[in-house]
């Protein structure tokens, strides 16, 4: 009996020690870096960058950014000055999967009377009759986090590529199924974003630098990253066995080289050691 009690006491003591470690998260101003993999090899920095407004125009359709989307995770020790690749966020969402409403919804993408397959056409009509016409566009990371590259010199100078971001866009609606994408891991939409000028398109902004937490966190506010040089491939996987691909591509004008992205927001960067030290 004494051995049993002693064993239980040891187990309880171990549990008490383990719980704080498991629940340790950054505190204070460093709390935004909760998804930074501070214990991952070669990670020496953390980034938290919310995009709060802007738009993405793919061919004929413009989708405004009204819901905040966050780029977050670690920054790997640079092999080239001013250039850093990202390490994946702890929760797997290096780029949060944030839905943005597509103006016009399904009515702007699909015309039911042009669908030849009878059952699919009936399903389309039923969806419209029931008012389920909304379509969301969700921009997702299309390649590993290490393919996301930040160039801090270009960001501040407003020249060249400040952020390389390979993405794919998921179109969400019951009729379109769960695998309707523009772009893929094999054929991503590669955004080479600048804070400077584009040729015949929008002009970005490097933003304003300040610090917080006694200088431990660099804050760049009022950043605008822009691009009008990326290609959007055809949509695939839309509807039952992809039968809506052709209709979606015709309506959107895909593939397209006439596309624009404007991402407005801010950036916070901190040394990973300081983030880890703040954990409570």
Description:
- With about 280 residues, the chain is an alpha+beta fold.
- Helix content is about 20%, strand content about 35%.
- It is built from 5 helices and 14 strands.
- The protein has helices spanning about 1-25, 120-130, 150-155, 245-250, 270-275; strands spanning about 45-60, 60-65, 70-75, 85, 100, 135-140, 150, 165-170, 180, 190-195, 210, 215-225, 235, 260-270.
- Strands 1, 2, 3, 4, 5, 6, 7, 8, 9, 10, 11, 12, 13 and 14 form a 14-stranded antiparallel beta sheet that branches.
- A hairpin with a 2-residue loop joins strand 1 (about 45-60) and strand 2 (about 60-65).
- It is elongated and about 65 Å long.
- Residues about 1-20 have low confidence and may be disordered.
Main beta-sheet strand count, sense and barrel state: 14 strands, antiparallel
Helix content: 10-25%
Specify Rg, calculated over alpha carbons. Answer: 23 Å
Mean pLDDT: 88
Question: What share of residues are in beta strands?
Answer: 25-35%
SS-derived structural category = alpha+beta
Distance between the termini: 37 Å
- What's the structural domain tally? 1
Please, how many helices?
5
Structure summary, number of beta strands: 14
Spans where pLDDT lies below 50 across 5 or more residues: 1-21
Give the H and E element order: HEEEEEHEEHEEEEEEHEH
Outline: elongated
